[in-house]
Amino acid sequence: MPDSQQWRQVRAFLNDQRFALTRRLLAxxxxxxxxxxxxxxxxxxxxPEQPVPLERVRLRWQPDAPAAQLDGSGxxxxxxxxxxxDGTAHLRYADAVRELAKPxxxxxxxxxxxxxxxxxxxxxxxxxxRGQYFDVINICEAAAHEYAAAVLSxxxxxxxRAAIGDPTDLARRPVMAATSTLVIRxxxxxxxxxxxxxxxxxxxxxxxxxxxQVMPVGMFQASHxxxxxxxxxxxxxxxxxxxxxxxxxxxxxxxxxxxxxxDYAAWPLDQKLSAAREDGSLRVFWLGLGMDPLTYVTDMxxxxxxxxxxxxETFRRIVSTNEEGHRVGLDDATGRSTGIPFTAxxxxxxxxxxxxxxxxxxxxxxxWQHRKALLELPAAEHLSSAAGPGRHQAPxx
Length: 397
Description:
This protein is an alpha+beta fold. It has a single domain (about 5-390), classed as Nucleoside Triphosphate Pyrophosphohydrolase, CATH 3.90.79. It is about 30% helix and about 20% strand. The chain is built from 12 helices and 14 strands. Strands 1, 5, 6, 9, 10, 11 and 14 form a 7-stranded mixed beta sheet that branches. Strands 8-7-13-12 form a 4-stranded antiparallel beta sheet. A hairpin with a 6-residue loop joins strand 10 and strand 11 (about 300-305). Helix 1 (about 5-15) packs across helix 4 (about 135-155) and helix 10 (about 345-350) packs antiparallel against helix 11.
C-alpha cells in the first residue's frame, strides 16, 4: 500500500505520460476488442458501417438495472490505495483524488449509465440506467493508475485490470459514457472543411488531461441532479447542445435547472440549431462508441457538420480557453484560426504522432473514412424520416 507521496508521483506520471502509456499497452498486449485501425476498444456492432443520422439513435430507460459486479472498493486495489497519515487507506480512488490531487472540476453528479447496445436495422438502440460520475474515477482512472504504477515499478501483474476482465462487458462494471462530438465547419463554395480541436488541461480535468481531443465533450448526464431533469435531459442532442454552449461559447453550466427543467424550445441556441438541422445546414451523425484502452473510459462518437455561414454566425464569439482547457488552432496569414484543416495530412498527423485521446483519434479517422457521406449529404433530405418526440423512452422517478 503506497503512501501519499508515492501515490502522487504515480498520478503525476500518469497525467504526463497518458499517450506513451497507451502506446506501450497496445504494443505489448493488444486488447481483444481493439477496433481495426483505430486505438479504441469496441464490440463489432458498436461501430456502424456507415454514419447514422443522430435522430435514428434510440434511447431506452431501465431504472431498475442491477448493480454492477465491480465498484472499485475491493481488495484488488489495495496495492494502489494510498495510506493517510493516520495509517488508514482511502476506500476508493475518487477519495484519494479529492484529498491528494483534486482538479478544478471534480463533482460526483448523477450520470446515465450505459447498460446495453443493440444494433437495430433502423439504428442503434442504447439502454441506460442511473449511475454516478465518480464511477468513472473509481474504475477507469484507478485502472490507468495501476498500469502506470506497474510500468514505473516494472511489475508484471495488474490485478485490478485482471478483475475487470473484458472491459466491454457492460454488466461487469458501471459504465458512464461521454458524448464526444467532432465539430466540422464546411464551406460549400470551396469544399474546404476544418474542425475544432481541444487540449485538455490536467490541472482542470480528472480524466484525459494532457491530451488533444475533439470538442465539445461531456458526460451524458442531466444538467442538474434535481429529479425533473432526469427525463427532460435524457436526449443525445440536448447533451451535445449544452456542451456546444459551454465549451465553444464559454457559457455557464448553470441553467437554473435546480429550480425547473430547461425549456429547450425557448432557448435561442436550440431554436437556431434545430431549425438548421431541419433545413440541412447542420447535420449530426452517430459514428458509434468505444472505450479507451488505458482507462476504459467510454465515449459515444458523434459528428456535427455546420455549413460555414451557420458556424460563423453561431460561434462569432467562440472562446479560446474554457473550464477544461484551450482550443487549438493553426497560425495562418491573418493571425486567426478557428480550427484545424480537415485534410488527410492533418488527420494522419494527429492520429499517428500527436498525443491525442483515443476517442478523438478514432472520431477523426472514422470521419475521414466517411467524409463523402458526412460532407456531401444533400441538404434537408436526411431528416424526412425523423421519428419525432416519441423516439425514445424517457426516464422518470
